[in-house]
Amino acid sequence: MKEIILIKVGEIALKGLNRRSFEDVLIKNLKHRIHSLGKFNVSVAQSTIYIEPLSDDIDLDDVCERVSQVFGIVAFSRALVCEKSMDDILSKAGDYLYDELMGAKTFKVESKRSDKKFPLKSPEISATVGGKLLEQFPHLKVDVKNPEITVTVEVRDFGAYVRCKTLRGQGGIPVGTGGNAAILISGGIDSPVAAYMMSKRGIRLTAIHFASPPYTSERAHLKVEKLLKIVSRYSGTINMYTVPFTKIQEAIKDKCPQELFTIIMRRLMMQISQIIAEQNDCTALITGESLGQVASQTIHAMACTDEATSMLTFRPLIGMDKEEIIRISRKIGTFETSIEPYEDCCTVFTPKHPRTRPVLKFVKQAEEEAKLQDMINEAVENIKLTVINP
Amino acid sequence: MSVGKGMSEHYLDNSATTVTSENAAQKALMMMTTKYGNPSSLHKKGLEAELEINKAREIIADSLSVDADELYFTSGSTESNNTVIFGVASAKRRAGKKIVTTAIEHSSVMESLKKLENDGFEVIYLSPDENGVVPPSSFEQAVDENTILVAVMAVNNEIGSIQNIERISKIVKRKNPDVIFHCDAVQAYGKMVLKPKKYNVDTLCVSAHKVHGPKGIGALYIKKGVRIAPLIYGGEQQKKVRPGTESAPLIASFATAVEEFDIAKNREYVKSLNTYLKSELLKIDSVTINSSDDALEYVLNISVDSIKSETMLHHLEQDNVYVSSSSACAKGKKSYVLKALGLSDKLIDSSLRISFSKYNTKDDVDAFLASLKNGINTLAKSK
């Protein structure tokens, strides 16, 4: 029995004249995501994308899992491929749906006929297939209002398809249709979620991570790579830039007022990120900030941080509670990794009493006196690239 | 050091694990590629492997002055400690529900006993003095007629303190001769003479990878006549105490490492390194030495004022100097051992463990000292 995956494209179907290019991007993303599982024919017709495996050893469960992670898909299903003849449909449908129908008490059959040359009309197809299934599974009853299982028979231009379960897609719009942005990623719970959320809106991600050896370890870096690898299942390949940040942190600690340490550090991170983002054709920065979560995320502190760059900055978690963020991080699979305990830079340097209402004038004055600008260029020159693939 | 990746590596974390000796590694390779039979197979390939295991068992038994048929191979001391603790609890549950141990045992003992506590056993954790030594007299009070098991480690993994196993065992057995006395001797093995029979110890475990053998193999001594319910069930191997196909390569390799023991000579040598290191550390104001002078010379625990353990550890690593921040098994957690000694949080947060092997040289110590001093001068201090 030959099985394929049928994908209903979601929001992208609404995009008018852009629709074709959105579809093309989605198909490219899908192909890229599944090509390591085997050879496929991926095509589109009548608002449906078809994924047809070209060899028998491909496990469709694996393919479905990957399809469920690609943005731009609302729902999809597995379907049995039949010849466009009632005989073929009737002889295969029962076998194909055996497990589902054995586990149900009620069902109905729905039919769609886009090939109007097919001899039977939709209601006739439903009645014939339903009758045959009742014969094969005498325990079943037909319930057209509230069936446990809906068997769908579709007669399309290239073939007939029988399916019953609809699987949920990841939603969103295809990655690559929304431009490029750079996520500042730390290894905590929030930034991977922020990355996921912006990627869901079609953005292709670049990642920027600040490392401060020996205050942070190689394992902390590996943890960030692991987090990005999980995010890349949704977003596709991510270029991760690691910025050597030790000297800058030590300089801030030595030369700036202790209570301003965090705010100045964040401003420098943003400035460095903007440079790297511009070098990589990014139009925006993304951070995992959530208003009021910590001292550097008060409205006053964020106003100070924001002033450090001229680039558009997305903060998709800004209005969310920690609980809500955690729920998403569990859903996308980053939570367990995020909570692994590795020493990170912030703990050694963070002041006991950080300023929650920093005054921009004093912050800038402290920065100037510490002469940190040269160190920014040095850090940017020494960034290291790691390519993260799903 | 003369073994390992190169001369530029200064591995001072030998209580975590050791480099496998060239001969031991060669032996494992030979076993895997030549004498690869299943020791239980009836044919010649099986016999070949079995004979190697028998020989290895003799060699390791000899190193502990016990009989070969009192020795069982396990995956290491975590398994051995679990086997003894749960095996005794299960076999002697009708005799009593009390267990006596120390507050500084390895986590494989601690966590097993915690589980038994949840199951209704009473566990007494005896406190050490500030040197990490539990006074033998405190066992006098703790052990009674309900006690079924006493577990005491020979040498502590974090600070090197030595427990007087012979005296403790004598006191325990006098109070209650039916008690099973278990000794976790992982950190003592190969470094000091161990004679469980003479000390009247019932069970004792050692591990290959702490003595330049491979990881994943350990030996458990169970005195003849002591009954322990097995943890796992399977075939007839190892008198059903520890079923499963024996890992002949690891066992043979372990024995090769044991054949290279030279306890007295190595201890004398390591003592000279330790003495040198300590004398140099005493010149640095911000260093506190946490190990006592009576501790085993292979381990030295120190604290560096206001520099977090992990920060200093990663700083040292940049100079290819490898030490440990408390126990390697407990990444990022506060050491309960140092806490039990009464050390302040400040000292605990900044503690480092330097642990030697016979392969270390004065050069390694100098590299450590140079990097440490550099770190003290340059690293940001915590509050």
Your description of this structure?
- The complex is a heterodimer of chains A (390) and B (383).
- Chain A has 15 helices and 15 strands.
- Chain A has 390 residues and is an alpha/beta fold.
- Chain A folds into 2 domains: 3-170, VC0802-like (2-Layer Sandwich), CATH 3.30.2130; 180-388, Rossmann fold (3-Layer(aba) Sandwich).
- In chain A, strands 1, 2, 3, 4, 5, 6, 7, 8 and 9 form a 9-stranded mixed beta sheet that branches. Chain A has a 6-stranded mixed beta sheet with strand order 14-13-10-11-12-15, with helices on both faces.
- In chain A, helix 10 links the parallel strand 13 and strand 14.
- Chain A is elongated and about 85 Å long.
- Chain B contains 12 helices and 12 strands.
- In chain B, the strands form 3 sheets. Chain B has a 7-stranded mixed beta sheet with strand order 2-8-7-6-5-3-4, sandwiched between helices. In chain B, strands 9-10-12 form a 3-stranded antiparallel beta sheet.
- Chain B is globular and about 65 Å long.
- The A-B interface holds A 213-218, 249-250, 253, 341-343, 347-349, 352 and B 308, 310-318, 331-333, 375, 379-380, 382-383.
Quick structural overview:
Chain A has 390 residues and is of the alpha/beta class. Helix content of chain A is 41%, strand content 22%.
CATH architecture of the largest domain in chain B: 3-Layer(aba) Sandwich
Biggest beta sheet summary of chain B = 7 strands, mixed
CATH fold-level label of the largest domain in chain A: Rossmann fold
The low-confidence runs of chain A, each spanning 5 or more residues with pLDDT under 50, are: none
Give me the CATH superfamily of the largest domain in chain A: HUPs
Give me the CATH fold name of the largest domain in chain B: Aspartate Aminotransferase, domain 2
Helix content of chain A: 40-55%
Low-pLDDT parts of chain B are: none
Q: Judging by the overall fold, what is the CATH architecture of the largest domain in chain A?
A: 3-Layer(aba) Sandwich
State mean pLDDT of chain A (0 to 100 scale).
Answer: 92
- Enumerate how many helices of chain B there are, as a single number: 12
The backbone outline of chain B, from C-alpha atoms, is globular
Please report the total strand number of chain A as a whole number: 15
Question: So how many helices of chain A?
Answer: 15
Based on Cα principal axes, name the global outline of chain A.
elongated
Rg for CA atoms of chain A: 27 Å
- Following the backbone from N to C, one meets helices and strands of chain A in this order, namely EHEEHEHHEHEEEEEHEHEHHEHEHHHHHE
How many structural units, i.e. domains of chain A?
A: 2
Strands in their spatial order, largest beta sheet of chain B: 2-8-7-6-5-3-4
